[in-house]
Hints:
Elements: E1 5-6, E2 12-13, E3 17-19, H1 22-31, H2 42-47, H3 53-63, E4 64-65, H4 69-87, E5 90-91, E6 94-95, H5 96-101, E7 104-109, E8 122-124, E9 127-131, H6 139-157, H7 159-168, E10 172-176, E11 192-195, E12 200-201
Helix pairs in contact: 1-3, 4-6
Amino acid sequence: MSGHHEYSEHHEYSEHLTFVPANIVVGFLQSDPDHYYDTFTRFDLRARHVASVADYIDRIPHAIVDASAKLRARIREAVPIVDARLARIQQVGFNGQKAADLPWRIGFIKDNKSGYEDGLPHTRVDLIMLPTRLAKACDNELIDTLFHEKVHIYQKAYPRDIEKWLAHNGFERVRRRTKGSRIRANPDIDEWVYRDANRVYKCLYSSETPRHIEDVKEDGLNFEHPFEMIK
């Protein structure tokens, strides 16, 4: 990718792709700029094996790392492929070229099921968080993961577009998620529960004592939220 230069062994920058240094990522996540931790219920805390949000924030420095040279190289190769795939998509409320043009900012999580967000890929504002295990993933898994997370970045960058996409695809708001609900927190979705003509979209923990973030009812992962459905 043209125009990039390395500014240390582990970090590099270009106009379109930034690998954000771990210390910067830690500060960003601890500041909770999108107020994600405010959405945590007692069930979310239980799934994350912490007693409080403060405990969770204290764990973050131990979970964030800089990526290996191998993983950074694979991502540099994958990003143009993902952007080209995005650019081919034109839907009401989703402009693939606009999505492709958005810059990539990426931080990295240790592969630790008891650490920050169980090491699952996700987004926070304009930052994509990826687990370091993707260094061992096949090309398709890496590309699909990057694609999925870039779609979430678009959703956050262009909320008016997404309102049009939701309406065009028959989704309507039912209610805001509440603190008493077993619906799991997810930084990639908004505060609403949606429905279409067929079902209500939500991902419920399987019990009041979830063992981890993915300890959810079987259909929850497939029908969590409309934001997870743009392909």
